[in-house]
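A quick word before the example. In earlier lectures we treated sequence and structure as two separate objects. From today on, think of them as two lines of the same record. Here is Carboxylate--amine ligase written that way.
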Amino acid sequence: MNATPSSLLFWGGSAPMDLGRDVGTRLLRQAAARGVTTQATPEYPDAPHLSEFAGALHRTEVEDPARALAWARGRRFDLVLGVREQVQVALAEVAEALGAPGNPPAAVRTVREKDRCRQALSAAGLPQPEFRLCASADEAQAFLSATTGPWIVKPRDGSGSVGVSRVDGPEDLAAAVAALPARAAFVVEQFVEGPEYSVEGVFLGGAPRVLAVTEKQLLPPPHFVEAGHVLPADLPPARREEFERAVTAALTALGLRYGVFHVELWSTAAGPVLGEVHVRNGGDWIHLMLEHAIPGLELFGLVIDDALGRDTAGRDLTPTRAAAVRFLAPPQGRIRRILGWDEARAHPAVLRADLTVRPGDVTGEVRESYDRAGHLVVGADSPREAAELADRLAGLVRFEVDAPEESTEPEEAAS
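And the structure line, produced from the sequence above:
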């Protein structure tokens, strides 16, 4: 008699855009390759990339923990995985209710709220910038008056750089608060000087295992949108080990133990300062870059194997290659013509290339990740080669843009 195959619930599905489709299909394919049956609870109604691979799709509320628990009651799954930021608390609650491996819901709530995460990391003795949770511009102004700038204004629980602004002085505060996605509590914190990195990894046997450090490139302030990444970062071994120790200490102190992690940090003269902690894979095609840099790695398959008690100890998880991504940000205006794209994407080292604009589209200021116009992901033998190739190919792409027309509409009086 054959044993019942293990079952996996893909909680929250993945977005139907290029990045989400790739992440979702990789997860489901890697589960299927291990004989694991899958079902999904997609948030997006149009999810053909999920229905093609998952045995069944269920419509339910995926971000609300109480409604998620009501749906999960009486069901059985061996594993629960999710890749979207907004579903992580509900996912942890569902996993606990099912008796499946997962992170403690309280720990996930902590990392989802940036101020609570900073408090927990500070209590664990890990350096953190001064910060304050604010309910109004007046509270934010009081924090600015009591501390030295520059500062960052950000949503309490956002992602994708949405609503994140740099404030160099009190005169910038009103615009930063207006750029927040909702009139709810927000975080103001001191700006940390230093290059930015992220640390990618998985939990194996309940303990964090770092797979790679990623170097970030950012577009100019006041917004903090990624312009590109290189994986692995070209770092001295001692610096990489310092980053690994800080991230491992943070994840352990927060009580996290399952799945994939993506932790952001700054490298300062005094050592690493941790930024945001995520219990999901990094965005911006980091999952693809990671699997290229570590030949044979299946990121979600590794998590599945560990959760099912399969031996992962003998696997070589050291990057032996490199990858880089560059994002395209054309000038503002109406696009008349795009040159060089076909040549760039045809290069044999390109792992992924997507253009999200076309002639006739109007481009504006890049305020968040979703405003970028496309990307090129390349693979190479070393971080330097990957970065240089990505820069060269991105430089081939030129946007001929008509300057934005001056508005003739009278400005409305401020209310």
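Notice the following. The radius of gyration is 22 Å. We will return to this example when we discuss secondary structure assignment.
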